[in-house]
Structure formats: C-alpha cells, structure tokens
Amino acid sequence: MVATSLKLRELIQEIREAKTQAQEREVIQKECAHIRASFRDGDPLHRHCQLAKLLYVHMLGYPAHFGQMECLKLIASPRFTDKRVGYLGAMLLLDERQDAHLLITNSIKNDLSQGIQAVQGLALCTLSTMGSAEMCRDLANEVEKLLLQPSPYVRKKAVLTAVHMIRKVPELSNIFLPPCAQLLHERHHGILLGTITLITELCERSPAALKHFRKVVPQLVQILRTLVTTTYSTEHSISGVSDPFLQVQILRLLRILGRNHEESSEIMNDLLAQVATNTDTSRNAGNAVLFETVFTIMDIRSAAGLRVLAVNILGRFLLNSDRNIRYVALTSLLRLVQSDHSAVQRHRPTVVECLREPDASLSRRALELSLALVNSANVRAMTQELQGFLESCPPDLRADCASGILLAADRFAPTKRWHIDTILRVLTTAGTYVRDDAVANLTQLIGGAQELHAYSVRRLYSALAEDISQQPLVQVAAWCIGEYGDLLLEGSCEETEPLQVEEEEVLALLERVLQSHMSLPATRGYALTALMKLSTRLHGDNNRIRQVVSIYGSCQDVELQQRAVEYNTLFRKYDHMRAAILEKMPLVERGGPQGDEEAKESKAAARLLETAAVPTEPQASKLLDLLDLLDGPSGDAQHPPPLDPTPGGALIHLLDLPCAPPPAAPIPNLRVFERKGLQLNLSFVRPPETPALLLITVTATNDSGGDVTHFICQAAVPKSFQLQLQAPSGDTVPAQGGLPMTQLLRILNPNKAPLRLKLRLTYNHFGQSVQEIFEVNNLPVETWQ
C-alpha cells in the first residue's frame, strides 16, 4: 500500500483537479490511509515525506492529529531534512493544550546546544511559536546564552524567542536584563529592532526593569538621531525614510521611559523636535514616524512649545488627502483634547469641515471631536454647525449628534431663550433620536423660565401644527399647551410674530394628536392631560373636552383608560375642585443635591400628613377621597388615622421643641434581583422629621457584556400605603459596570404597617425581551417600624 502512495506534488495536483468536495474528500481519505500505514510500518527514510503531505492536508482543514508523535520522532532524528519537517509539524500540530508538546523540550535543549546555526534557528522558531510557560522556564538559560552568540542569524532569533518568553513568564525578566545593554550596540537592524522590542516588553511588565533602562535613554536618543540625520543603512531605507520600523519602535520605547520622568523627558525634547521637523511627510512611512513622535511628545513631560508643535502636526494630517491619515489625526486629537484643549481648538474649522466627509467612520470621529471642542465661548457657532450636520447626517449618527447638542446646550447655554430654541430645533429635526430625558429636561427648563412661557407655548404650538410625527416634540408641546394655554390665546407676545389662535383650533390640534396612528401611548397621555387642563384655562364650553375624555374611558391602553376614567370622575363628582387640582405645575429646582431634594420631599409629605390629621375639614376629606377614585365610593374610603399629638410624637416636630430624638441608625441596603449580570439594589432613607415617609432608591447595575436597554421598573404597594414613582435617570444600563441607572420611590406609611413591595421589570438584554414580576417581603424592619 505504501508503494502506491502519492508524492506531495502529485497529491497537491490531484486535490486541485477534484471537481467536487466529495472527490476532494475521497482523495484525502485515501492518502491519509497510506500515510497511517507508512507510520505503522516505521519507515524512517520516507517519514518526513509522509508528514509533509499530512501537513498540507492539515492546512486544508482536515484532521491530522495522528501525526503528532511522528513530529517528535523527526525532531529527535540527526538528519536536518527530518528536523526541518518535524519542527514545522510541531509548530502546526502542537500547542499548549496538548501534553505531547512537553516531550520535545529535551530535543529543543539539545539542538540549542549544538553549533549548527540552521538547527538552532529551527529550535528557536519552534520555541517562540508554541512554547508554553513550562518550556520557557526550562529553556530560558539556553536562550540567554544564545543572545551573545557570534552569529547574527542566531542572535536575532534568540531575541525574538526572549520576547515570547517574557510575554509568557514575566518573572524571567531578570535573566534578560544584562544582555540587552550589550545588544543595544549592535549594527544589525534586525537584532536592534528585536532588542528594542524586548526592552519594551520588559519595561511594561517590570517596574525594576523600567528604572534600569532609563539609564540607556541617551543611547536610544543617539541611535534615533543617527537614523534621522544620516543614512544609517541604505538597504533599510523605505520611501526616503531610514528604517521607519526601527524609528517607530524606538519612539514607543522612549514614550514608556519618559512617562512621568522629568530627567528622561528633558533628554528627549531636542531629538523629538528634530524628528518632528525633519521627517518627510510626502510618504506614508514618514507619516507613521510623525504619528509616533506626536504620541511620544504628548505622553512625556515635554515642553509647552513642543506640545503645540505636536498638535499642529495632527492639524496638518487633517488636510491630507488620505482618509486613513485623517482618521488617525481625528482619533489622536480626540485623545489630546482634554489635556491640550486650547491647542486643539485652533484646528476647529478643519475639524468641522470633516463633518461633511462621505466616509461614515471619518464623520463619526469628527462629530465626537466637534462635541468635545464645544465651550462657553464658541457654543453658538459650534451648535449652528452641528445642527446643520444633524439635518443631513446618516441615520446611525443622528442619535449621537442630537444627544451631544442637547448636552452641550445644557452645559454652555448663554441664555434660556437660546437654550429653548436649540432644543426645539433638535426636536423638530431629529425628535425620534433624542435621549429619553430630553422631554423632562425641556419641560423643566420652560417651567423655570417664567418670562418665556408665552414665547415657548407659541413656538411649540406652531411646530406642532406643522408636524406631529416627532413624538418628543409632540409631548413637550402638549404639556406646554396644557400648562400655558391661556397665554397662547391672549395673542400678545413681543418676541414672536402676532399669532391669533382660536380655542377650537387648539382643541382640534390635540384631538388630531390623540387620533394619529403615529402617536405613542405616552403621547396620547400628554394630549389627554393637556385637554383636561385646558378645561380650566379656556373660557368656552367644556362639553367638547368632556366628550373626548369620555371616549377614552374604554380605550384598550390601560394607562390611558385609567387616566380618562379618573378625569371623568373629576368632571362628575369633584367639578368644584377641578380648577385647584389642575392648576399650573409648581417650579421644580434643577440639579440640586439629593439631600436637598429629599428634604423638600419630606416637607411635602409632612404637609400631607398634617392635612390628613384634621378630618373635620371637608376639603381635606374630599382630597383623600380623590386619591382612591378607582377603589370604591368615597364614603367607603378608609383614611389613615390622625397623628397622635403626644409629647413624644409629631407634635414635638411641629412645635420645633429643642428636645430632638437621637439620630437613627442607617438602614441596610437590600439586593432584590440578579439575573445574567443585571442586579437591582434598594437603599432606604427615612427623614427624621417625617417618620411616615420612606424614600427608596432603586439602583440597577450591569456587569454583563451587553447593554440592558428599554429598562422599566414598576412598583405596587398595598392600598393602605401611598406610592409615588419618580422618573428614572434613563432606560439603559451600560455593560461592564457602567454608570448605574437609579429611580426614586416615595412611600407614605402613616399606619406604620409592615411594608410589602411588588416589582415588575421589563427590559431587553442580548436581543431578548425579558419581563420579571416578583414580590419583596424581606424588607428591613427599620423601613416601617
């Protein structure tokens, strides 16, 4: 059977001539049978030929594991032809996961001790390719001896093998420290490049090596200066640049040695300036050297003028016709914008021009850099440029551009009117791409700018009349019309053109929003509430509003149906309280500390408790009835008992007596949910001045590898409690332990009953929609006692 075996050339030809994959498999299976038979017969003369064919079969993707032991036999053979194929087979068929690779350690050690350069080169190549940590520890001394061999061929391969050993076993660094200093005197470029790489690996993994090699900085500077000023080796010149590979590697090593070290940085300054000014930028090799030079200048403690020169080099890169170089420049400037903002700011016009690049990767980088360059001095001009880009940018960039404009306007807005105009333009242009908190932020901004209420409601009404497809814009407009509809009908606003609006037109527009198929359930809720509030702002008959509200009392959307039923009840039973309940929203402070916010919440809860403590007032009784509209008739509603006005009770707080109770111990946190890296923790605060109020902060964190999106947390409590959910900080929980998402729950427990909490979580994770409903019964007793 062995006699009919094919030669390697014949096997390759037959495989290439196969018409189908089945024919190829048939040829390979037949030849593999011949190879197995030859291995069993133990033919030493043809073993290397059979293994060569098997390696070709392995390269085609077919199994060849049965040739591993034959590799060991060929490596142990004294013949060079056998060793060459054996070492090649070991590199292809063996790796650290198989114990067989340890069997060649002695063979490699013997071959490294021989004086034959070709055999030593084979052994070193194999060791640097598949050497495990155990092999590196056993053979480190042999490799260290070969670093100083006379033959440049062996020294070069020994240096590369030492690099592999340091990466596998960093504690071997002490063995290779002494030879490196001698190898820096080499004239051979290959050895010198390998030595620089070895020193770089040593410095990155050992603080002692970093301190040791800072002594050779002058020598490295001299090597690089020779490369820049003279033709160090003409055979290594690429596009007129003398060995750019060696220059780049030396610059990377200098960057590591000069980082946070004043003396080393001072030695490099003159050289770096020389490289930055003398390197030819007409070819890509020179651009690569300049790029590394810029990074080295920015990472070490260089002079201020040198840093400006580095930024100017990147600015010239932005004008290059090569898109790759422009991309590198934008990425590099983005890294430098925090440390050298003023220097990068000089190239702002060029960066803005890159926004118009047809290449998506370039325009994305230009967008990120443009947003980073926005400050209080240029916010008007930059925002105008970014808004122009937003109108024509690709859909995958609109979300980032819109969010960036809103954040920049929030930080650097010169006036409130400009801030409102900017957000309105973003909502009009790309409303469906803005962040979830854009609606809440704009309503809060408009509510806090009392002098701009008339201006805002007119602008929003005009925008809504033109387009009702942008849902965030529709929500803000509906809210604003509901709050300030009376100002819209007055027709007098100095800051806008005269606009005469009739009541019927406003109601018709909101009805159009309610009936539109593009309106989300939340948008319809805004519109329905706006109609209800207009019932107290308009002077005409409310029959049209009542008819619209009654229609949605049978809506399929539960939230909208509940809202409509409550509004209908308000019309029928509590019409005399409607104006007071639907009055304008109070001003909400922005961005205050959490402690101040909780104090305000505590005061509000205390006022509510005081109201509940006086049952003789009919207004308070009716207000409590209103809180239980869906639970039954008002006469059956159970109200919390009045507070006990004892000397040790709430009367002390009301009278502000000096005898204050001792501070309560902190309530321990509680983890209530964990699934695939998503965790939900509850933290509790009970304000001392209002013991019946419990503030629960829900914190969601994500340690998995994928973002949790569309996250919604809903809560429910027994009827004897009163629950209010605040808006969450967002609906996305970033992966890898990113910024957590938080939401505040306010629970009023006047009866101090044991607290039970039911939570429902809905979110998307790794492309799957998840819904979890669970009850929390193990809350600490400190939350209610």
Automatic annotation (TrEMBL):
It is a peripheral membrane protein. It is found in: Cytoplasmic vesicle membrane; Endomembrane system; Golgi apparatus. SMART domains: Alpha_adaptinC2. The keyword Ribosomal protein does not apply. Residues 1-28 form a coiled coil. Its main location: membrane. Keywords: Coiled coil, Cytoplasmic vesicle, Golgi apparatus, Membrane, Protein transport, Transport. Residues 665-780 form the GAE domain. GO terms for biological process: intracellular protein transport; vesicle-mediated transport. GO terms for cellular component: AP-1 adaptor complex. PROSITE patterns: GAE. InterPro entries: Adaptor_Complx_Large_Subunit, AP1_complex_gsu, ARM-like, ARM-type_fold, Clathrin/coatomer_adapt-like_N, Clathrin_a/b/g-adaptin_app_Ig, Clathrin_app_Ig-like_sf, GAE_dom. Belongs to the adaptor complexes large subunit family. This is AP-1 complex subunit gamma. It comes from Camelus bactrianus (Bactrian camel). The lineage of its organism: Eukaryota, Metazoa, Chordata, Craniata, Vertebrata. The gene is AP1G2.
